[in-house]
């Protein structure tokens, strides 16, 4: 074996370990909590984990995957979640049918994405600053519309049928929220990995200037990107409100950082370090399992945040550090 061959083999080994960093972390987390928490691997806990933790974050993170894949960032996903939740609950409270309330909630999220697209395409504002501005506007709008941030609870029996139709129905034994996640995952996968739109997103992510000179209608594609992200976040908002049967102002903020973290964790399994649907879903599961396990062993919320931060540093540090060493 020549020296060059040995170097190539060594580099391949390092790259392989780098790409498998997320899988190693996932396996290590499961083994750790299986040992130190007796209730971790029970069916009830796993069902609760997927239904209440994974589904909502995963749908939001899928939208973030599209945006980050296009080289942007969307800090307003929490606003899209909250606006969809607020309009959905208000329409239900006003006596409108569930289908109308769902459409209204999605329309509100669509408007958030459209505003982002307008600021980025027409006013030429950087996506970070544009979505940050929408974040502030959205927070103020919610507080004004909810009399200073008062929650809206719909606990009366006449509202139960609408919420139950969304969260307590199933198909072939699979709960509706999980079916919604599966449909969203397939749709985003096909859009990003099996369509012209996906090729445009990838090109925007690595060479936006080349995309413009290649004849790509960049403003139109960016509009699709940010509107898709907001609509997916709107789905999260509707599922969230249907689960808790209420609208709680600013509750969508809790999804922002985890959605970003899950998307970037997912890039570690890609040789090109690009966001992907499979990678993002794996990142979501890793974060959800970590939060669930820390809760079961008795860590409070603040220490859970520390644990999540350490996990993200370890996974991304190991993956990108090894990648850099191989280069």
Under CATH, the topology is which?
A: ABC transporter involved in vitamin B12 uptake, BtuC
Instruction: Give the tally of β-strands.
Output: 4
- Spatial strand arrangement across the major sheet: 1-4
Q: What is the chain-wise order of helices and strands?
A: HHHHHHEHEEHHHHEHHH
Structural overview:
By secondary structure, the chain is an all-alpha fold. The chain has a single domain (40-319), classed as ABC transporter involved in vitamin B12 uptake, BtuC (Orthogonal Bundle). It is built from 14 helices and four strands. The strands form two sheets. The protein has a two-stranded antiparallel sheet. Strands 2-3 form a two-stranded antiparallel ribbon. Strand 2 (170-171) and strand 3 form a beta hairpin. The longest helix has 27 residues, at 43-69. The two termini are 21 Å apart.
Write the layout of secondary structure elements.
Blueprint: H1 3-19, H2 21-36, H3 43-69, H4 77-93, H5 98-121, H6 127-145, E1 152-153, H7 160-167, E2 170-171, E3 174-175, H8 176-193, H9 196-206, H10 208-213, H11 218-244, E4 246-247, H12 253-267, H13 277-296, H14 301-326
Describe what is shown at a glance.
With 327 residues, the chain is mainly alpha-helical.
Observed structural traits:
327 residues; mainly alpha; ABC transporter involved in vitamin B12 uptake, BtuC; two-stranded antiparallel sheet
């Amino acid at each position: 074996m020549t020296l060059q061959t040995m170097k190539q083999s060594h580099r391949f080994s390092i790259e392989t370990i780098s790409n498998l960093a997320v899988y190693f972390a996932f396996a290590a987390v499961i083994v750790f909590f299986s040992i130190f928490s007796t209730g971790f691997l029970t069916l009830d806990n796993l069902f609760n984990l997927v239904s209440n933790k994974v589904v909502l974050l995963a749908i939001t993170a899928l939208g973030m995957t599209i945006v980050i894949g296009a080289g942007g960032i969307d800090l307003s996903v929490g606003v899209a979640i909250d606006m969809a939740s607020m309009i959905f609950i208000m329409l239900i409270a006003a006596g409108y049918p569930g289908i109308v309330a769902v459409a209204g909630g999605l329309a509100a999220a669509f408007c958030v994405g459209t505003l982002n697209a307008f600021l980025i395409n027409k006013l030429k504002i950087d996506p970070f600053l544009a979505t940050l501005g929408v974040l502030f506007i959205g927070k103020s709008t919610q507080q004004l519309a909810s009399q200073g941030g008062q929650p809206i609870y719909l606990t009366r029996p006449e509202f139960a049928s609408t919420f139950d139709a969304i969260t307590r129905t199933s198909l072939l034994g699979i709960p509706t929220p999980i079916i919604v996640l599966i449909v969203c995952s397939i749709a985003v996968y096909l859009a990003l990995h099996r369509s012209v739109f996906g090729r445009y997103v990838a090109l925007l992510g690595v060479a936006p200037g080349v995309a413009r000179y290649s004849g790509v209608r960049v403003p139109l594609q960016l509009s699709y990107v940010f509107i898709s992200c907001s609509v997916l976040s709107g789905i999260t908002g509707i599922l969230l409100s249907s689960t808790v049967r209420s609208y709680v102002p600013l509750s969508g903020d809790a999804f922002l950082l985890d959605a970003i973290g899950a998307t970037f964790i997912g890039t570690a399994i890609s040789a090109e370090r690009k966001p992907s649907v499979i990678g993002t879903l794996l990142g979501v599961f890793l974060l959800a399992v970590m939060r669930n396990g820390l809760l079961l062993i008795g860590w409070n919320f603040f220490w859970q945040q520390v644990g999540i931060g350490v996990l993200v540093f370890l996974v991304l540090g190991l993956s990108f550090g090894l990648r850099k060493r191989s280069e």
